[in-house]
Design goal:
Elements (H helix, E strand, L loop, with lengths): L17 E5 L6 H8 L5 E5 L9 H9 L6 E4 L6 H7 L3 E4 L1 H20 L1
Parallel strand pairs: 1-2, 1-4, 2-3
Amino acid sequence: MDTRTKIVNPDTVPRNATVVTGTFDVIRAEDVRDLARLARPVVVVVLPLTGEVLPQRARAELAAGLRMVDYVLITDDGHPEAILAALQPAQLVRLEAVHVQRKRQLMEHVHRRQTS
């Protein structure tokens, strides 16, 4: 299956799904474990990010490649409240802050490894 077909517009996403928002700039094992615990279907909303490692479309494709992700939406709005209201999620999981922290931890780890 071409996982890019999971990247859809909001009209094709079922209502009352589990919706996860985040940047998905760096996907770590913790992200996969967090997503695997969620009730399906899982809709990931990839938010814009300044200073990203990957462009937003590439981040959406990475998220779509995860088995437990059923749909991926790309939004140009850093505050996707309108999309979230339209989706009427059964559960909403906001991972923006977690993603910033995990990316920073990974970068610090890489810097430590390079300097020691």
